[in-house]
Design a protein that fits this description.
The complex is a heterodimer of chains A (528) and B (302). Chain A is of the alpha/beta class and 528 residues long. Helix content of chain A is 38%, strand content 20%. The chains are: A alpha/beta (528), B alpha/beta (302).
Chain lengths: 528, 302
C-alpha cells in the first residue's frame, strides 16, 4: 500500500530539501516550523495495460462497447491529446499509442474505412512528425500519417463548424471533421485534475472564437481552482461543461477514453528526485552531488538536451472509457488518489520550485511568460478549497527566468514580452487593449498554420492563467531570477532564499508561516 | 554554490558517519527500513569469539569499571544451570548490555548472544560490525516484521544463551515498563530457563540521550536472580508476569535486604518497579538519583 502524501514540519532533524529551479535543482534549508507538502508515493501501475484497455473499451461506462459503435461506412474521428501532457513525456510506449492501436484495430475489424486521427492541439503549436511518431507509435504513424493523422488547425478556412451556443451565450465551434463524424473517440491522458472531461473535445478541437469565452481574465479569476472541476468551483470547467452539453444535445457522439498515471516522474538515474530527502540512501546522495555538478558544468545546450531527454517511467493507474462525465468522475477519483494531500490551513508565504518543463515548452525553451504560467498559474493553483497562501501573502519562486525565447515555437511571446508587458502587466488591460490584435495577426496565424508556432493569442492565455495568483498574492519574489525579465513581469528578485524571506517581511511581517509545495512529482493540496 | 559547498551540505544534512535522523513529523510516515539481514554468523566463529573475549576482558570491562562502579550480585544463581538460558533484564541505559556481558562468568559469556534493535544498532556497516563483534549481537526488527524472533530461536536451538530486554527499548524515565512477551514465548517454545536480572543505577549513570557515563564513577548494581523454569502447561503470558515479578523482587532486594524483600513478596507487597505515580519529570527525577556507594570509600577522591 503506497504511503499517502503528508505535510512535513521542518525541525532540526530535517535535512535540506530539494527545490527545482528550471534546468537545475538545489538543496535548500527552510526555517524551523516551515511546512513542506509531499505528494503520496506512486500508486502501483496496472500490470497488464493491454488487458485493462481492452476491458475499458468492451465494458465502458454509460455507453455501448466501442466495437458496437464502429460500423462499416461510418466516419470515425479519433482525437488525441498533444505533447503538452504528460510532463515529462512518457517513456515509450506512450499510453496513447497503446490505446490508439486497440481503437484502430477495432475500427479495422469492424469495417471502418473513413478514419482520421487528429492531434487536438487547439491553439498549441503543431507537433512535428517525429513527435507524433513517438506519441502514437510507428505502426499507427506509418498507417495514417500525414493524410489521415494530422495536427488540428484552428485557422484553416472552413475547418470549424459552429454547433450552437450555450445558455451563457458562449459559441461552441469545433473541428468540422470531428463534428460531422458519426463518432469521436477521444484519447486522453489526465495528468492533473484540470485535464479531461468536457475540456477534451470542447477545448482541444476548438478555435479562438470558442476558446475566448473561457480563456479570459474573468474566467481565470473565478476558477478557484483549476484543479477542482466540481460545478461552481472552476469557471473554466463550468464553461467547458456547458459547451460539452451543447455538443451532446446537438448529436455529437463522443466516446471518451481517459487514462491516469502514477507519480513515477523521474527515471532511476534521477531517482532521488522522486524520494523524500531523509530517505535518500548514500547512493541517492552521491547521485545528487554528481548530477548537480555535471548539470552546472555542462554547456547550456548540453544541459537542456539532457533535461529534454528525460522520459518518465510512469505506471498507468487507470483506463476508463465511455460517456464523458461518467468516465471523468472515475478518472478524477483515480487522480486524487495519487495526488491529493490534506493540508491544515493557509500560510503567509508559499514557496514554489519551478521545474524545467511545463506544458508549453516540451522540446523547447521555458521563456519568462511560461515561468509565470507554470509558477503562478499552475503550481499556485495546485489546491482545492483555498490556496496554500493567504490572500495578501507572498509567493517565492525558484527559477533563473532567463530572457530567452524559442524563436520558432514562441514568436508571439517575444512581442508580447517586448511590447505588451512594457506597457502593463495588468491582465484586464492587456486583454482589452491587445488580445484581439494578436489573435488575428495574419503573420502569427501564418506561423501557427505552417510552422510550429503557438498561436498569436497564446501568450495572453499564459498571462491570464496567472491572473488569480497575481490577484491573490501581494508579492512575488523570484530567487535567482534574471532581474530584467522579472522586473518586466512585476516580480522582485532575490539572490538567496534568506534574502527573499527578508524581502517578504515587508508584506507578511517578521515571522511568517511558510509552506513549500514539494513538486514534482505532482501533488494537489486539499487546504482545510 | 560550488561542489565543496554541496558536499558540505549533504555531509551535514545527512549526518555522514552518524545515524541519519527522521524529522519528527515524518516519523509516522516513514517505515522502519527492513534491513537486509546483516549477517552475524561470523561473530560466533572461534576467531571472533577469541577477539570478543579480548575486547570484553581487556577493553570493555576495564572501561566500564573505570567510568562506573558496578557491583554484581547473585551470580551463584547460575551455578548448576546448563545453558542455554534467556537472561532478561530491565533496560534503562546503553550500559546494560555491557554490564551484563562483563558481569557474566567467562564460560557463560562465551556462549551468550544479545538481541539488538536492527534500526538502531545495525543501521550502518561500522555500527553493525561493532555490535555483532563486541556483544555477539543479532538484529531484532522492532516493528515485528523482521526475522529477529526466528534468529533467536535458531540460536537457542544451537545452544546460545540470549540477553533480551523484554521492555523492547530503554525506559524514557528510568522506571521499568511493561514486558513484551517475546522472551517468554521463546522460553516456553524451547523449554529453557529464564534468569531475571535487575540493574539499578544505570539510568543515573548514563540515561537515554547520553553516549558516555556521567562523571563521578556512579554506583550501579547488577543483581542476578534465581532461574525461572517454564511450567509444563504454562503459557507465555503467565511466564511474562513471573519474569516481571522476579525482576521487581530483585529491585526490592537490592534496595532493602533479601529477607525483607522475601517477606514482602510473600505478602504480595513487593513495590512496583514501574516507579512512583506522578508527572514524567518527577519520575525521571527520582530515577536519576545515584545509588549510595557501599563499602569502603576510596582513599583518594576521584
Amino acid at each position: 500500500m503506497p504511503r499517502p502524501g503528508f505535510v512535513l514540519e521542518v525541525d532540526e532533524r530535517t535535512p535540506p530539501v530539494l527545490v527545482h529551479e528550471g534546468e537545475g535543482f538545489r538543496l535548500q534549508r527552510f526555517p524551523l516550523g516551515s511546512r513542506v507538502v509531499y505528494p503520496p508515493d506512486p500508486l502501483p501501475g496496472i500490470k497488464d495495460v493491454g488487458a485493462a484497455i481492452r476491458h475499458a473499451l468492451e465494458n465502458p461506462v454509460g455507453s455501448e462497447p466501442l466495437s458496437e459503435l464502429l460500423k462499416p461506412g461510418m466516419r470515425l474521428t479519433i482525437a488525441v491529446d498533444d505533447i503538452s501532457i504528460p510532463l515529462p513525456p512518457m517513456k515509450p510506449p506512450d499510453i496513447r499509442q497503446r490505446i490508439l492501436e486497440q481503437v484502430v484495430e477495432a475500427a479495422a475489424r469492424n469495417g471502418v474505412d473513413d478514419a482520421k486521427i487528429i492531434v487536438a492541439t487547439a491553439l498549441h503549436r503543431r507537433m512535428t512528425a517525429d513527435e507524433i511518431k513517438r506519441m502514437v507509435g510507428e505502426r499507427v504513424f506509418r498507417s495514417f500519417y500525414p493524410k489521415d493523422l494530422y495536427n488540428f488547425d484552428a485557422e484553416e478556412p472552413g475547418s470549424l463548424l459552429e454547433i450552437g451556443t450555450t445558455d451563457e451565450g458562449e459559441v461552441v465551434e469545433i473541428s468540422k471533421r470531428a463534428a460531422e463524424s458519426d463518432l469521436i473517440v477521444y484519447v486522453n491522458i489526465n495528468l492533473v485534475a484540470m485535464d479531461g472531461g468536457h475540456k477534451s473535445v470542447a477545448i482541444g478541437l476548438a478555435g479562438y472564437r470558442s476558446l475566448r469565452h473561457h480563456h479570459n481574465v474573468h474566467t481565470m479569476l473565478h476558477s478557484r481552482s483549476y484543479m477542482d472541476p466540481r460545478p461552481g468551483r472552476s469557471a473554466i470547467h463550468d464553461s467547458a461543461t456547458r459547451m460539452g452539453h451543447v455538443l451532446r444535445d446537438n448529436g455529437v457522439r463522443i466516446f471518451a477514453i481517459e487514462t491516469t498515471l502514477n507519480s513515477e516522474t523521474f527515471p532511476s538515474q534521477f531517482g532521488f528526485l522522486n524520494k523524500r530527502e531523509w530517505e535518500w540512501s548514500l547512493k541517492d546522495q552521491a547521485l545528487f552531488l554528481a548530477a548537480k555538478r555535471a548539470n552546472e558544468l555542462a554547456p547550456p545546450r548540453v544541459r537542456r538536451e539532457v533535461w529534454r531527454r528525460i522520459e518518465a517511467p510512469y505506471g498507468v493507474t487507470g483506463v476508463n472509457a465511455g460517456e464523458t462525465e461518467a468516465v471523468h468522475e472515475r478518472t478524477l477519483a483515480n487522480l486524487y488518489r495519487q495526488q491529493l494531500v490534506e493540508v491544515g490551513g493557509q500560510s503567509d508565504v508559499l514557496v514554489l520550485g519551478v521545474p524545467y518543463v511545463g506544458p508549453y515548452n516540451v522540446n523547447s525553451i521555458m521563456n519568462p511568460i511560461l515561468v509565470h504560467c507554470l509558477g503562478l498559474g499552475y503550481l499556485f493553483n495546485m489546491y482545492r478549497n483555498q490556496p496554500l497562501v493567504r490572500q495578501g501573502g507572498a509567493v517565492i519562486m525558484f527559477h533563473p527566468v532567463p530572457w530567452e525565447f524559442h524563436q520558432i515555437h514562441h514568436p508571439s511571446y517575444v512581442d508580447f514580452f517586448e511590447e505588451v508587458l512594457v506597457e502593463t502587466a495588468d491582465p484586464k488591460t492587456i486583454e482589452s487593449k491587445f488580445e484581439e490584435r494578436y489573435a488575428t495577426d495574419p503573420w502569427y496565424v501564418h506561423l501557427y498554420r505552417t510552422s510550429h508556432a503557438y498561436h498569436g493569442v497564446h501568450p495572453f492565455y499564459m498571462w491570464y492563467w496567472g491572473a488569480h495568483g497575481m490577484d491573490h498574492a501581494a508579492d512575488v519574489i523570484v530567487v535567482g531570477g534574471d532581474p530584467r525579465s522579472c522586473a518586466r513581469m512585476g516580480y522582485r528578485t532575490a539572490s538567496s532564499f534568506r534574502d527573499a524571506l527578508e524581502m517578504a517581511t515587508d508584506t507578511v511581517g517578521a515571522s511568517p508561516s511558510i509552506t513549500y509545495l514539494h513538486v514534482p512529482p505532482l501533488a494537489i493540496a486539499e487546504v482545510r | 554554490m560550488g561542489a565543496w559547498g554541496d558536499l558540505r551540505d549533504v555531509a551535514k544534512g545527512w549526518r555522514w558517519g552518524r545515524r541519519t535522523l527522521v524529522p519528527r513529523s515524518a516519523s509516522r510516515h516513514t517505515p522502519t527500513r527492513l534491513r537486509g539481514q546483516f549477517p552475524t554468523a561470523w561473530a560466533r566463529t572461534p576467531v571472533a569469539k577469541a577477539a570478543r573475549e579480548v575486547l570484553l576482558s581487556y577493553g570493555l570491562r576495564p572501561l566500564v569499571r573505570n567510568e562506573t562502579a558496578p557491583k554484581v550480585h547473585g551470580l551463584e544463581n547460575l551455578e548448576g544451570l546448563e545453558g542455554p538460558v534467556i537472561l532478561v533484564s530491565n533496560h534503562t541505559s546503553h550500559l546494560d548490555a555491557s554490564l551484563i556481558m562483563t558481569s557474566l562468568p567467562r564460560k557463560w559469556r562465551e556462549k551468550t548472544a544479545t538481541g539488538a534493535a536492527a534500526d538502531y544498532f545495525f543501521d550502518t556497516w561500522w555500527r553493525s560490525i561493532f555490535t555483532a563483534l563486541v556483544y555477539n549481537a543479532f538484529p531484532i526488527d522492532r516493528t515485528g516484521r523482521g526475522h529477529g524472533a526466528t534468529d533467536a530461536s535458531h540460536m537457542l536451538h544451537d545452544g546460545w544463551s540470549l540477553i533480551v530486554f523484554p521492555e523492547g527499548t530503554r525506559s524514557p524515565d528510568g522506571w521499568m515498563q511493561r514486558f513484551r512477551t517475546g522472551a517468554a514465548r521463546l522460553a516456553v517454545q524451547h523449554a529453557v530457563p529464564v534468569v531475571p536480572i535487575a540493574i539499578r543505577g544505570a539510568y543515573a549513570a548514563m540515561p537515554k540521550g547520553r553516549n558516555w557515563p556521567r562523571p563521578g564513577r556512579l554506583a550501579i548494581s547488577v543483581r542476578f536472580g534465581r532461574p525461572l523454569h517454564p511450567g509444563e502447561d504454562e503459557d507465555h503470558r503467565s511466564l511474562t508476569r513471573r519474569m516481571f515479578q522476579a525482576v521487581a523482587e530483585l529491585f526490592d532486594e537490592d534496595s532493602t535486604t533479601w529477607f525483607e524483600s522475601v517477606r514482602r513478596a510473600e505478602r504480595g507487597e513487593t513495590p512496583a518497579p514501574s516507579g512512583p505515580e506522578g508527572p514524567r519529570w518527577l519520575r525521571a527525577w527520582e530515577a536519576s538519583r545515584s545509588l549510595p556507594r557501599r563499602g569502603r570509600r576510596p582513599a583518594w577522591r576521584r
